[in-house]
């Protein structure tokens, strides 16, 4: 059973009650030698015997329905294809997909409305440090973020950002994290105490307009909206996490599950992770078809041809160690630029944010 929903719903799950068999033989010597045998409701006993038939250990996960949250972004292609291409069913996994408003998946996790999802690694670091109850299970792909500027702006390198304003979708989003990482790596101050760049928040749809009107000097966005904006407004791509070293080799997105799923239903967590890995590997070989399916079935908006070009800049070879390595690099840099509290034990956070599941390939091709 696979269901796809457009809003958050509460799900009631039946609980399986296991009742052991007891043989109760009552010898009633007082009441004229009458006797009777009683069997607990729901159990069975072997006829003509006082020894009950053995019970079969029930599979507690066979009726479990995994609640998966998604936001409808292009790079979620592995999640969309796991549904469309039957990889969840292939794993014997029952799922319920719920579309969430952008940026609300961690709230849904905290409210116990979803059990699993897909997220940018950079966006996971701070929530995990604050106790978000999830475990990362695998990396899925590289890419996602771009920084754009007008062609006549004179902004072509990190040094050109000194004293400039950069529009971002939020102060905790992946685009601002990517921008700060690039600038910090090139000696530009972006910390609270030494900022040489001003970051200003606009809605995603307003970012290109703010740049066009001169309210900001550059904008940082996720794809495909970044590519659409670059094409529509004839903008330069100053930084691209899918193409610029060393970021192009660092995984940006991952699959995660709630901690209680890892603890209570590790087989469910493994099935979800394998399905996502299989789907990601399929996307790597079929970007045109994946983009068409996403648009035709309304997983994402936009033009399938444009979206396919963006997908082709990402590396969709899933990797557990790829996610682990990228998380460690990003977490340390976030602490250095003041986006992660100085008191956080980054090494401990790094280790505790991941889980090892049985039967999960280190890299799936």
TrEMBL record:
Signal peptide per UniProt: 1-32
Record-linked SUPFAM superfamilies: Periplasmic binding protein-like II
Gene3D superfamilies: Periplasmic binding protein-like II
Compositionally skewed regions (Low complexity) per UniProt: 39-55
Matching Pfam families: NMT1
Segments crossing the lipid bilayer: none
Protein name stated in the entry: Putative aliphatic sulfonates-binding protein
Annotated source species: Oxobacter pfennigii
Gene that produces this protein: ssuA_1
């Amino acid at each position: 059973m696979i269901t796809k929903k457009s809003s958050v719903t509460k799900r009631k799950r039946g609980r399986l009650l296991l009742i052991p068999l007891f043989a109760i033989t009552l010898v009633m010597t007082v009441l004229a030698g009458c006797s009777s045998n009683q069997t607990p409701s729901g159990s069975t006993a072997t006829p003509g015997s006082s020894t009950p038939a053995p019970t079969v250990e029930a599979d507690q996960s066979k009726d479990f329905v995994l609640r998966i949250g998604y936001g409808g972004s292009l790079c979620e292609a592995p999640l969309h294809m796991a549904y469309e291409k039957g990889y969840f069913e292939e794993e014997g996994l029952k799922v319920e997909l719920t579309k969430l408003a952008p940026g609300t998946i961690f709230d849904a996790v905290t409210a116990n409305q979803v059990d699993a999802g897909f997220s940018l690694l950079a966006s996971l670091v701070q929530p995990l440090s604050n106790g978000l109850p999830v475990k990362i299970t695998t990396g899925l792909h590289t890419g996602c973020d771009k920084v754009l500027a007008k062609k006549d702006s004179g902004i072509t390198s990190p040094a050109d950002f000194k004293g400039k304003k950069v529009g971002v979708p939020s102060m905790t989003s992946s685009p601002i994290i990517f921008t700060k990482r690039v600038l910090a790596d090139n000696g530009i101050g972006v910390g609270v105490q030494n900022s040489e760049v001003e970051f200003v928040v606009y809605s995603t749809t307003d970012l290109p307009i703010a740049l066009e009107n001169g309210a900001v000097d550059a904008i940082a966005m996720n794809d495909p909206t970044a590519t659409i904006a670059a094409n529509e407004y004839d903008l330069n791509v100053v930084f691209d996490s899918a193409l610029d070293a060393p970021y192009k080799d660092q995984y940006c997105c991952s699959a995660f599950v709630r901690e209680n799923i890892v603890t209570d239903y590790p087989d469910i967590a493994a099935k979800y992770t394998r399905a996502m890995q299989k789907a990601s590997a399929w996307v790597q070989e079929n970007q045109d078809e994946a983009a068409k399916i996403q648009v035709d079935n309304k997983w994402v908006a936009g033009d399938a041809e444009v979206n396919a070009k963006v997908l082709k800049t990402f590396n969709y070879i899933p990797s557990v160690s790829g996610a682990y390595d990228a998380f460690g690099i990003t977490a340390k840099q976030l602490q250095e630029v003041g986006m992660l509290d100085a008191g956080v034990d980054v090494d401990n956070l790094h280790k505790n944010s991941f889980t090892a599941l049985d039967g999960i390939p280190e890299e799936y091709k």
